[in-house]
Amino acid sequence: xxxxxxxxxxxxxxxxxxxxxxxxxxxxxxxxxxxxxxxxxxxxxxxxxxxxxxxxxxxxxxxxxxxxxxxxxxxxxxxxxxxxxxxxxxxxxxxxxxxxxxxxxxxxxxxxxxxxxxxxxxxxxxxxxxxxxxxxxxxxxxxxxxxxxxxxxxxxxxxxxxxxxxxxxxxxxxxxxxxxxxxxxxxxxxxxxxxxxxxxxxxxxxxxxxxxxxxxxxxxxxxxxxxxxxxxxxxxxxxxxxxxxxxxxxxxxxxxxxxxxxxxxxxxxxxxxxxxxxxxxxxxxxxxxxxxxxxxxxxxxxxxxxxxxxxxxxxxxxxxxxxxxxxxxxxxxxxxxxxxxxxxxxxxxxxxxxxxxxxxxxxxxxxxxxxxxxxxxxxxxxxxxxxxxxxxxxxxxxxxxxxxxxxxxxxxxxxxxxxxxxxxxxxxxxxxxxxxxxxxxxxxxxxxxxxxxxxxxxxxxxxxxxxxxxxxxxxxxxxxxxxxxxxxxxxxxxxxxxxxxxxxxxxxxxxxxxxxxxxxxxxxxxxxxxxxxxxxxxxxxxxxxxxxxxxxx
Length: 553
What we know:
The chain is an alpha+beta fold.
């Protein structure tokens, strides 16, 4: 997708999209919807007041990379997908539209949607994994008076993924768009505007803009002034369970719902996902592997890493915060391997970009999850992949290096290594990178009594065990793996009065169902191997930057 000039889309379009749905059991009392605007798809769920999932639906959409390091999407695709997914939910006959009592929203963080005074999209949204803004990050730190003072103001350093440098980039490179900009919204908040007509965001997502005073839970006037960004470009900010608006009649008609349903603030995908995993009290940590990988810790107080290696944001729990480390290509590295090297003796299917016509045999084989086949193959390699290390920096890296020039690759490759070693080393490398975040969180004296795993890394027994072995701690699985959409629905139960607090809602809905302790021998090996992994980035840092120069020459 490439859009130029003013894109006159608005919120009225609706097209049929690629949507899937699964069903659950009968409802209890009211129904609550959670809608998560992800990077590759929108996921919607319906649950009852005790957290039982009644239906799930997903609708996907494309992502555009118009230049190396750029990542963009058309915000209108998010709205179409929210409409499509919701209508699919309502086809399940265990509940009716009139039963829906509240809606919660979640979405990919940091993305910037630039709208004019008539709410028209001015250009494609610049996403969280876009790396074009390195020079703008330097400008922000300079204007703030240095990295240390910036962290004191907004609890975080300037990173290319955040929203503030995107705003400065637009002002510098597309001034015609910036001059027309009336409001700047985050992805889920664009969907909110389409649903309610309200300009609004909430504290957990606003924390990731780099324009938010995380300690005071409000927009940072001092930094906005230093950057010469008009406060009126940003929407009012709510707590995550607060009602931010009601569903408009025109939006309700498109979604198949009744008008007037309360829409709560919701949460950025990581904070909402943490609510969906029950990470709402001290000592419980989550390790979530999606496209990115996130290690997330609840905190009752504001706790800031003075080096800025991990993020401190407002939690979706009122009056609480969280500390979070992010690996940009976690499941994304595994997906890249599948798409690039996914043809082998046990895996016979075309890449997503292939135009090959599938014969009957290939169609049958695609019914098997390719990731299951890959992890089965990885299990044939020994612990540690016989000295083969993989760096998962395929789209740069955030924690702990904050380096958009970082590159991925293998180290230690010999003729002895085969496909099983390559696959296992990818999973090990991603988990080592996640451990980097866990180590920093523990350095900050944040208690780690329980690690809950979710996402792709939780669905695989092999990867669950790998996480336990590399973290050196027992990992837990819970009774739901619905992620941010589920957390958003639970926030809606609180905002509409079904529960008095998010902690109470999570206690009613979420239980630990499985524990995976570390294997003693594997834990011992990874404890010795991890320091070798940690040495690779410092040794290669200067080469990464040189490679980026060669690529752009």
